[in-house]
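Known limitations

Files may contain more than one protein. Parsers should not assume a single record per file. Below, a two-record file is shown to illustrate correct handling: read the sequence, read the token line, then continue until end of file.
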Amino acid sequence: MKITPFAVEQWMNEFETRCAYNLAETCVASLTVSELLELAGAGDQALSAILPMKLTYGAIEGSQRLRTAIASLYAGKGPGDILVAHGAIGANALVYQAMVSAGDHVVSVVPTYQQHYSIPESLGAHVSRLALKAEDGYLPDVDALRDLVTPKTRVIAFSNPNNPTGALMDRARLEAVAAVADRVGAYVLCDEVYRGTTQSGDELTPSIADLYERGIAIGSMSKAFSLAGLRLGWMCAPVAVLKAAEIHRDYNTISVGMIDDFLATLAIEHAAKILARSRRIVRTNLAVLAQWVATEPSISWVKPTAGTTTLLHYAHDISSRDFCIRLLDQTGVMFTPGSAFELEGCVRIGYANSPSILAEGLERARPFLKSLGA
């Protein structure tokens, strides 16, 4: 099977270890094990549970306790509605492998994480791309989506909150998308890894799994939960999807690690505290970024409403990759080029890292931007 190289991951692989100020990072500032245990009020009790743990294969679908905890993030769901995977990246791949075949039609709302068009293309599906526009606040045009959908449409895929723009679809728009899908019996795959990182309100935003009978919600410990090192994600989906995904999962996962399962359970059982921390970080940092943008005449944006990333458009005649490489070489600051999302004239910034790294990185980028305009 041939597949297009994963541009954003190739970029991170090539440059992430070379930077001093990682403003390409998309995870909310990572927790240490000690910090997790403190937030969960677990401490010695949790360590006492881990130390005698026999490190065999864990529960194949994810432990009952973990799947019960994950189900609590949705309305009226139980452990039988959840399948645990090796990160959200594993869950997304499983859905496409299980549900999409050659000749099927997929609609992908772009820009987005490249999995959502490159994997179905590699499987022989025809992929139509619905482009988000800055003038629409990077929210999808439902009428344009309706025009793209056909009786052969198998999946409509998007991320919400969106990566890389930080736009957030509300309940009404999600329901409108679901109605379009329902006309042809299509599934809606919503990559919700940034769910819980809104700029206003403290409640979890609506999930497609709670709004549409063929809705497939993908979640992860990496972004909003600050625990990327656990490499643990999941899907909340109809039983038919779970059963089909399980068949493929047997070939590439078996089970996730037992310690990962245990720590993820602990985190989700104390989601309120962890997500409150994440919201504090993204809201504080976005205010810093907004002040910086306001004082940089060559930079424009659509201010994000959720997530940990946004696009910064620049008014300079330089490719986004050259922009980012020169910035990194001269300042140690790392952005992600728009070209990783098949865009130009912009870069993606991640603003959920350590506040000190963000502030220093932005200041170091100032003279670089000034030099481009000289």
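...continuing to the second record:
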Amino acid sequence: MKHYLIVSEKEWNQHLSQTLQKKIKANWSLIKHKQDFELTKLAQIKPDKIFIPHWSYIIPPEIYENYECVVFHMTDLPYGRGGSPLQNLIVRGHKNTKISALRVVKELDAGDIYLKKDLSLLGTAEEIFLRSSKVIEEMIVEIITHELVPTTQQGQPTVFKRRKPTDGNMIDLSQLDQIYDYIRMLDAENYPKAYIETKYFKLEFSRASLKADQSIIADVRITPKET
């Protein structure tokens, strides 16, 4: 029987090994901690394919050179290679994107493509990630059942720069829709929130709602500013 492995540290992806078990008869395993994603552990599992929906760490060469690793990237590759794809898409005004399933190689997000699926960018980051998890589940089923063979990326690459927590500072934004986008695109588990700082305090925003009267209602967490 085939053995497939899901690798993700994010809560919204950790149901995949269980739900996929109901759709594809195989052995399914989950790795969610960086220290467990190493050759000794993989030698025990002996996965036929490794599916990586969301992983914040560099995948070591000894892993992707010995196992077929499929990573899922939230852009229409080769557009948007690099870090923070969701946030970089939203700040550029995109309302929709594609999830690309690709083979892991040495160059970041440059591997051959198995398939792509559409994804809406409406809602908070967490809502988008939950939506993407369902799409990724469908993609994994398709890759396995149709035994998809990846093909070379086509087009000129566009590279995104990974965003830093300080990039969430909204103090210089001049438009209301920009503020709304900043709040929602960072509103997810373990993401640094969009914020504004005063002389003494830091205000972090979440759960934003853009109203018809062109106002925003949001939750705010106020803490003393670090010195």
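Parsers that stop after the first record will miss the second one. For reference, the second record is described as follows. Helices lie at 16-23, 39-45, 61-64, 85-91, 125-145, 176-185.
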